[in-house]
Write a structure and sequence with these properties.
Number of domains: 1
Helix content: 10-25%
CATH architecture: 4-Layer Sandwich
Number of strands: 11
Distance between the termini: 16 Å
Strand content: 25-35%
Radius of gyration: 15 Å
Number of helices: 3
Order of helices and strands: EHEHEHEEEEEEEE
């Protein structure tokens, strides 16, 4: 099965539309959002087309196909307008027979790893940088930021297709990839 991951939309209607259009054409079963959906945060500049009301309306149209976790910029007020759960700090997902610990990254991350078994994957957002690498016998995965990328990276998302995790820019270019074995 195919799954799409995105993080750090930060209220950008422009990039939310790109995420959803890409999701539609990806063939993915679910869109997994790794937090920071509506608010840009006090340390970030306003993203392109900052329109949180449009973002929650667009996301709500996909409520039955979204799994989401809370980011450090997300709040209970956001949950009041979103029609899918997004207040959990993490979700443990079994995708294609592999365990993924999905979180935003502000609590659990490379420096503060959650309890993982060999072969498990930590997938997170928060740092706005794409990551696809093994760390000893586990995997560190980050789709980058859909709206506010850092480190000179383009806006990005990721797709898990069977055991291949690939990070793409919105023009279809591959930023990084790893085979989960």
């Amino acid at each position: 099965m195919k799954y799409m991951f995105a993080s750090d939309i930060h209220g950008s209607a422009y990039y939310c539309r790109k995420v959803l259009d890409t999701f539609e054409t990806s063939g993915a079963e679910r869109l997994i959002l790794l937090g920071d959906l509506l608010y840009h945060g006090p340390r970030n500049d306003l993203p392109r087309d900052y329109e949180p009301k449009q973002v929650f309306a667009m996301l709500n149209e996909y409520r039955d196909r979204i799994w989401a976790v809370r980011g450090n910029c997300d709040s209970e007020v956001d949950q009041m307008v979103l029609q899918f759960p997004m207040m959990a700090d993490y979700a443990v997902l079994v995708l294609n027979g592999r365990t993924f610990y999905a979180t935003h990254g502000h609590i659990y991350n490379e420096e503060n790893m959650p309890p993982l078994q060999p072969g498990d994957a930590l997938i997170f957002g928060h740092i706005h940088l794409p990551v696809a690498r093994a760390m000893e016998d586990k995997y560190l995965l980050n789709p980058g930021s859909a709206a506010l990328p850092k480190g000179g990276n383009p806006p990005s998302y990721a797709v898990l297709d069977e055991n291949e995790f690939t990070i793409y820019d919105f023009d279809g270019g591959v930023i990084g990839s790893i085979r989960l074995i």
